[in-house]
Fold:
Amino acid sequence: MSIHVRSIHKQFGSFVAVNDVSFSTERGQITALLGPSGSGKSTVLRIIAGLESPDRGEVSIDGEDSTWRSAASRGVGFVFQHYALFRHLTVAENVGFGLTVRKIPPGEIAARVAELLELVQLSGYGRRYPTQLSGGQRQRVALARALAPRPRVLLLDEPFGALDAHVRGELRAWLRRLHEDLKMTTLIVTHDQEEAMELSDKIIVMNRGALEQSGTPDELFDVPATPFVASFIGGSNRLQGRVRGGVTEVEGHLVPLERHLPPREKHLPPEAGSPRDETSFEAFVRPQDLELRGAGHEGGGHDATGISAKVERLIRLGWQVKLEIRLASGRLLTVQRSKEESERLGLRAGDLVRLHLREARIFPFTDSSRVQGTPLLGDLLT
Structure:
């Protein structure tokens, strides 16, 4: 079943929670609503579920207008972040609760509950109570309960948010395998970009109640359409720059412009992508796309090119090392390197280095306080 959301708007008092949001999900795929807290993603999910009503706009499920239908009649299964299990009921009673309310014959309920407990790998747990289960097991019970009435679509609101990192990772992998078996149209709300990238076929990025960009995980990572997406997906560093005399200057680092424009952009008119002289911009560079060189870099000698910087801190994170680098302008950047590469460079806190940008996404300033719009350059390679 597919979901179509058209021009949804929702306001609570003077606060605009959702502002003219439209998108579609594909039949049998997992779609993620991704964004920071307060971006409106959970409100959109609750409107689709029928738990909230939009001020305007439409919701269609499998081609049927469901905007004003009751939650019970929409055929959706809903999984909350905090399980919402009944403590006084056993696991089996929790899973079969929705069927009991619908007055399904007891024999059919028992068969369906047994089928679902096996599906979520909890066979033999039917007589236990929620307090006797781990957090991950409780969430699987909540998922089984949502699946019991055979919903047309499955909606999950931060389903793993209350769990520790290890359990979240296990449940993500388990849910993806389960989805491969069920092929149920699924919409999941999350603020965790790793979760969205791992689980989803399509991601819808929201910010401040509006839709920023939608696409596959690869599309959002490789071709962010707005500064927010560029900074939110991949945790990019922000750098300041200008175009002077046909050359890009990033934190004092000069790069010939024409050489670095992607072929598809070299022949566009100025208003379609080629920056005018004296254009200010921000460059978004991911931690792994910053190359460090210094007095001890391979090839010998001190690097006189690149952006001048100083190593402030090195943080060991298992197989990789995170370095905090301070530019001459005072801007603090994060660089990620493998443990082996970091040891080969021999960097220590206090070392002077030069930064080189391997890849960046660049967006023009529209005023002194914000940036918006289409990428100014597709890639900046040095």
